[in-house]
Structures are given as structure tokens and as C-alpha cells.
Amino acid sequence: MNVNFADILRDTARRHGERPALVDGDRRLTWSEVDAAVDQTAKGLAAAGLVPGARVLLLVANSIDFVASYLGILRAGLVAVPLNTGLTKPEIATVTAHSGARLAIAGPGLADRLEGIRTVAPGQLEGDAPLPLPIDPEALAVLLYTSGTSGDPRAAMLTHRALSANVQNLTELGEDRMGPEDVVLGVLPMFHAFGLNAVLGWAVATGAALIVEQRFDPEETLELVGKHGVTRLPLAPPALHTLLGRADLRAALQPVKVVLTGASTLDRTLADRFEQVSGHFVHQGYGLTEASPGVTTTLGESEPKLGSVGRPLPNVELRIADEQGEDVEGDDPGEILIRGGNLFSGYWPDGVDGPDAKGWYRTGDVGFLDSDGDLFLVDRLRELIIVSGFNVFPSEVEEVLVAAPGVREAAVIGMPSEETGEAVKAFVVPQADTTVDVAAVREYAEGRLARFKSPVEIEVVDQLPHSVTGKVAKGRLRESGR
């Protein structure tokens, strides 16, 4: 296994150096050119005086610049902290302080969201300092902000070993695995684990060409599919829903061999409708940031089952356990536990709540295995809300809402959404003798939260249901049909 994840790029450049690697609008790079750009970035970072292990924020949209910056950070022995480009200035300030980052790389129009940290544009780093010696594969490579079992925002610590193991597992899949002849659409955000290491990382490992797109647009996306002969189409479920409105969908997807999703739960009805309209079965996968991210997939199965998220990837172990951690019987549901080299090393900075002494990690998700070993997801133990594949932590939204004018108490839950999978719904209780202006609360929240975190529905209630310990009983809010 490669010691530094960026070494995988060196191997690919040696094998497929003159093949197309990245297409970003009018910009095109071969794998040799990508390797050279990564080298230049790494040497510039080393010349900037950053020592191995230093954290670097990466606030850059999908682009060649993101790829060169991300892999350059890793090659320099530094730690990449990719950030959602939709985050607000206060949210970024929180991450900056928590991560202890020393430098930020910001794309066009994004630098003004950063303060209190040295900020440079992609490609602005210059220098020719020597790169560090090979590092321990257990060295930290990436901090990805996600959620732990407490529901609070936390940073998963992904090592070079974990990133490399994930792409190795993917390359060992059967006939559905990616190859150098493939053309992959790179529209899933690269600051997200799926886009970062199940799309970009896998393409880097195989030498497949990656067509980079900053954001999904049904017309532009289908145009790129036809123009570049895209063979692999990884999309989030909301994008699949949007594409169903295209009358020319079947013809537009003619070059495509594989459609796959995995950023959030795929509704069975949506998957069935998409196959009927487009002629393409939608392959599913299950993963989480803490697994870098791949756990299961239907890729490689001769007869994948509708509603299943497939079987464990090569070298990944999975079991279903009860509250005591004992295996459940038959196909009873229970918590999903996973083990493998692709797992994270706990949460930043001290590695807490990682895999146990035997290597097993409790995912907080509930599912069951059928007699063939296919996994079906049932629910989530934690309160996490997933909007378009992005994590939303209720406590973070609630903290903003209770500071809004006239609000005394707030509770946030997820509700089904055809467009985004889930959406944020808020319940707010007015302060005594006060009337809550819903529009004012919405405006207040939208000024402090990324768009995907902001409540799409705000309901004013006289009181919230509470448990005997004083905690808001969100299950009762859901059961009430609100």
C-alpha cells in the first residue's frame, strides 16, 4: 500500500501519463500534468514554512484547482480540511478555531468568508522547497467535519491508510469496477466524502478521466454526458429526481454504463421510476465519512435488489448487533457495525469515539441483512438530518433559532423532501407575551446558516413535548404528524 495517498497519483501518472485526467470547462490536463501541478503546490506549501501535520483549510469549489490543492496538501505531509463552499463566515470561523488551521486556500469569491487566518488563492503558492520524507501511513491526511454519536459537529480523522484502503477496496470490485477507459462525471462536491474519495480518489487510483462540474444542472449535466461520452454517472438522489423531468433522458444517457448513488437514502419508488424512464438500474451504496466512505455497494452483483444498498466492499466486515453489541438473529434489524482498514481514527483532536479495541465501529445506523448478505437500511439512531447528502446537526440549527427575535425554545427535525431527500423543519416557542414573526426568524437563520441547514418550514407552537429528563421528545413531534 502507498504510504502517502498522493503517491497513488504518481503511480497513475507513470502508467497513464498521457491519458486525459481532468476536464474543467476549457481546461484539460493529462495525468502527468496533474502530477506536475500537485508537485508544484506541495513544494509551494513546504516553502511557506508549514511543517508536516499542519492543517490547511480548503474552501474551493469542484475544479482542477481543488484537485491540485487537495493532493498537494497531502503530498506535502499536511492535513487537508475541505470545507463546504456554502458555509457562512461564522461557521467557517468555528472550524478554523477548532481545527487549528495555519493556512487557507480559497477559490474565487470565497476569500472574504475567511478571517484571522492567512489566505491564498489556488496556484498562488510559490517555491521549490524539498518535500518531506515518506510519512507513516497512520499519519493524519484529512479532517472532514461530520457528526459523532452525540449529534454535535465533529471532525473525523482520516489517515493516509484509510483513504488508500477505501480506493483499494473499490478497485477490487467485480466487472462493475472503474477502469482507465471510463469517463466519470465529477459533479458530487469534492468537499464531501463521497465526491472526495469515492469519485475523485477512485478516478485517481484507476486513471479514469474525470469531467469536473461545480454544481448539478440537468441541462448542463446531460450536455456534458453527451459531449464527453460519460460512462459513469455518480449522482445524489435529488439529482435523479430532477432528471426524471427530462423527456430526452433515455437518449441523453446512452453513453452511460453505470448510474450510482450513495450520498443519502434512495427512495425505492424513485429508483424504480428512474429505471423505467431511463433504462438504467440505479446502483446504490452505503457509506459514511468515518469509513472514507465506502461500506457496501450493489456494484458487482449480478442481480442487485431494489431497496438494498448491497454487500460489503472487499476487505470490509459488517455485522448487525443489538444494544449489548451481540449479533442479532436471522434478518432482525439492529445497529450496523463495521470493521476495515478504511475506518477513521476517531474524532479530532484526541481520537475519541473511534473503532473499539477489536476494530469495530458502531455506525449509529439501523439495518438488517437478508439471507444473501444484502444490507437494507431501516433508520438512524442519531438525530442527524441529511439534506442532499449533506449532514445537518439539529443542535447547531436550534442554537441559532433560540437567538432569533422572540424565540424562547426551538426544536428541529428532518422531514421527507422529494427535492433534497430530507429537509429541515423547525418548531419554535415564543417568548412570554411575544408574537413570533416567522419571516423574521427565517431571515435571521438564513444569515447565519448555510442554505441547506436553514429550515424550509417553521411552525410556531405553544410548547414542545419533553421527556422526564427535560430533553425535547422529538419522536413525539414526528408521531404527532406535525
From TrEMBL:
Annotated AMP-dependent synthetase/ligase domain residues: 10-348
Top-level taxonomic group: Bacteria
Family matches, as Pfam families: AMP-binding (PF00501), AMP-binding_C (PF13193)
Gene Ontology MF term list: CoA-ligase activity
InterPro entries: AMP-bd_C, AMP-bd_C_sf, AMP-binding_CS, AMP-dep_synth/lig_dom, ANL_N_sf
Signal peptide (residue range): none
Domain AMP-binding enzyme C-terminal, chain residue ranges per copy: 396-471
PANTHER family listed in its UniProt record: LONG-CHAIN-FATTY-ACID--COA LIGASE (PTHR24096), MALONATE--COA LIGASE ACSF3, MITOCHONDRIAL (PTHR24096:SF267)
Protein name: Long-chain acyl-CoA synthetase
